[in-house]
């Protein structure tokens, strides 16, 4: 990757991290309805996959942990923040909240609070693309915890049977909520499971910007060119708890992972870059994210008007 590509990824990744940090602070202040699930540790992988897509022709579905996915696709961050905070001006006027994000104009078909529920929805997008011959593909993110869900397994099978252009992206962080994957799964090889269905499958270190980008582009191109499904397992750390505020008593003292953003920073600093460039990018990303979340926090609470308007429209 060229230095320009690395610095662009670095700035975007730090914006996502800072955006979620500001949301976590807003949650602590009681400004966010419900629990907040942070994507800390998956930013590099999600930006790598997004760089391989043709948006909005390609459509993406995500889980309850989709703030980073939305931002990687280019979703308007102010509208996203308003949605998460339950404010007017949100993606769904504040009615969906943190787990139910939708912005198809940016390629985000939707995120889903039901574990694994987003995966069959991506098959619908893939079938639509195939039937209408749009040239688009579908992408569905899910975690290793969702990999044991029946709807996910049925989707892997059906994608092969119907030959659908869909890329399954399994973000394997080693935990399903607070349970270690090795404890909960009858077989720990997710690649073996995918290949048993007849899927083209590959594993990548989701903290490696070069390999993540290369592998995501290769698989996305293969899905687009062949019209057949593929499976990408990406090893990513979960740097925070299942949700913000999780006490994480299930963690061992040495169970923390290296931050992928530090790895990317090291790659940039190994190049001939101007002094202060990295810190300037961090500061700019932090300031931009904080300003956006502050602006969203100041917006009117959607619960005062949006639900009443929705009900009136539904009954009309």
Structural description of this entry:
This protein is α/β, with parallel strands linked by helices and 316 residues long. It has one domain: 3-Layer(aba) Sandwich (Rossmann fold). It has helices spanning 3-28, 43-50, 67-72, 77-85, 118-132, 150-161, 181-184, 190-196, 209-226, 260-269, 277-297, 306-315, and strands at 59-62, 108-111, 138-143, 166-172, 175-176, 179-180, 200-205, 230-235. It has a six-stranded parallel β-sheet, sandwiched between helices. The protein has a two-stranded antiparallel ribbon with strand order 5-6. Strand 5 and strand 6 (179-180) form a beta hairpin. Helix 2 (43-50) runs parallel beside helix 9 (209-226).
Blueprint (SSEs and pairs):
Blueprint: H1 3-28, H2 43-50, E1 59-62, H3 67-72, H4 77-85, E2 108-111, H5 118-132, E3 138-143, H6 150-161, E4 166-172, E5 175-176, E6 179-180, H7 181-184, H8 190-196, E7 200-205, H9 209-226, E8 230-235, H10 260-269, H11 277-297, H12 306-315
Parallel strand pairs: 1-2, 1-3, 3-4, 4-8, 7-8
Antiparallel strand pairs: 5-6
Helix pairs in contact: 1-2, 1-10, 1-11, 2-9, 4-11
